[in-house]
Write the structure tokens for this entry.
Amino acid sequence: MQRRPLRSIARACVHVLALTAALAALAAPRPALAIVGGLSATEPYPWAVAISQPGYVGSFCSGSLIASRWVLTAAHCVASISNPAAISVRAGSWNRNAGGGASVAVRLLPSRDYNPWTLSGDFALVELRDALPLRPIPLAGQGPDPGARARLLGWGQRCATRGCDYGSDWLQELDAVVVPNDRCAGRAQPASAFCVAGVGGQSACFGDSGGPVLVAAGGQWVLAGDTSYGPSPCGSHVGTIATRLSAYRDEIASIVGST
């Protein structure tokens, strides 16, 4: 199974042939639910972030508010962007187009351990121009270990083939379980990444990159990882790799402070 980052590639300036193919794909049968195989959000997630960029239709990545002026997302979402102001975010709303709080980026800081070839260290910190008056999500202190239950969030594609739609306008969620890393594509190291799989073969998809991977601790959600990469086509009974954020707490704290 080919491994590739889960970024949406829908662009406003798409060529005529690509647009024709996309419209044909939209007309074809596809799963009615999202992330592929998830469902619309069932509870408030004030720290879930939709990330947009000019030239893309909808959100091209997802993220998490970890402090009032800091968003955590996947490094592969932002590493090639030279102008931080091209990135806009919206948090505190299930709808990626309205509600909640919005801001633009002033700094994009991929992890110093990020490797674009292996996707190790695949997280980045996005500093916002405006503080968002929303509850951030705390980082997990450790784990998670195989067998732990997890939840993925994102505004990514609702169908399995890359470019087959422009993602969901409404935040989607998927309940999954942490499984051994050999259940995922690639050779992610357990010390810095973990694999999550939906019970029925569901997975994250293009546009869900950087989105929250949650576990429950102390009666609340905590941020265990961010979506890094997964199978293509999505939902093909291969798990999704998430960056293990507990391995990077010191690096994150050195920039953001205590979260």
The chain has three helices and 14 strands. The longest strand covers residues 220-230.
